[in-house]
Amino acid sequence: MIDDLLQELEQRMQKSVDVLQDDLLKIRTGRASPALVEKLPVEYYGSLTPLIQMASISAPEPRLLVIRPWDPSALADVERAILKSDLGLMPMNDGKLIRLSIPRLTEERRRELVKIVSRRVEEARIAIRNLRRDALQDLKEFESEKMISEDDFYRGKDKIQDLTDDFIKRIDEIGKRKEAEVMEI
Fold it and tell me: What is the DSSP string of the chain?
């Protein structure tokens, strides 16, 4: 019973880490990365569609992204979506594809991005701690319903804390790597 709880908790915590990693991919660094715009929602035939589902995205140069929509009529929609996004990039439309030149980041913008990374990392830590709280509550219910002994409760509590510490450590490492990447010139 406790093993099932721990297994479910680990899966849910891993999902939180995965969400953080996806979220941090969208934060712009000095390099061009297709992940920067892949999930950008584009208004396409009345519905929001992720850019990756309607165009090929490549990075032929370190500071350039090329977006080639499969449907040439969607070019204006893609351009509009990029302009609306908070990426701060200016699309260059040549009628067949869109070029996004990734400018060098200023020191001020780098510091802003580091703050955003820190905020996202803290949100992930909070999510992990909320999952720990929920698991401890379940454990208390098991004990109160006499499904587990008091000793099992304390052993389970220690395992939950160890799992929490492990995932928070992973999150911190991911955050430090991303901050270093953003500050890299």
Answer: -HHHHHHHHHHHHHHHHHHHHHHHHTS--SS--GGGTTT-EEEETTEEEEGGGTEEEEEEETTEEEEEESSGGGHHHHHHHHHHSTT---EEE-SS-EEEE-PPPPHHHHHHHHHHHHHHHHHHHHHHHHHHHHHHHHHHHHHHTTSS-HHHHHHHHHHHHHHHHHHHHHHHHHHHHHHHHHH--
How far are the Cα atoms of 2, 19, 32 from residue 5, in angstroms, in the given order? 5, 21, 41
Residue 175 amino acid letter: G
Q: Which two tokens stand for residue 151?
A: 């000793």
- pLDDT, one tens digit per residue, over 125-172 is 999 999 999 999 999 998 888 888 888 889 999 999 999 999 999 999
Q: What is the dihedral of CA 105, 110, 114, 116, to 10 degrees?
A: -70
pLDDT in tens, 84-119: 887 777 888 888 899 988 877 788 878 888 888 999
Q: What is the percent of the chain where pLDDT is above 90?
A: 38
User: Cα Rg for the chain, rounded, in angstroms?
Assistant: 22
Question: What domains lie within the chain, and their CATH numbers?
Answer: 2-25+106-183 (1.10.132.20), 34-101 (3.30.1360.40)
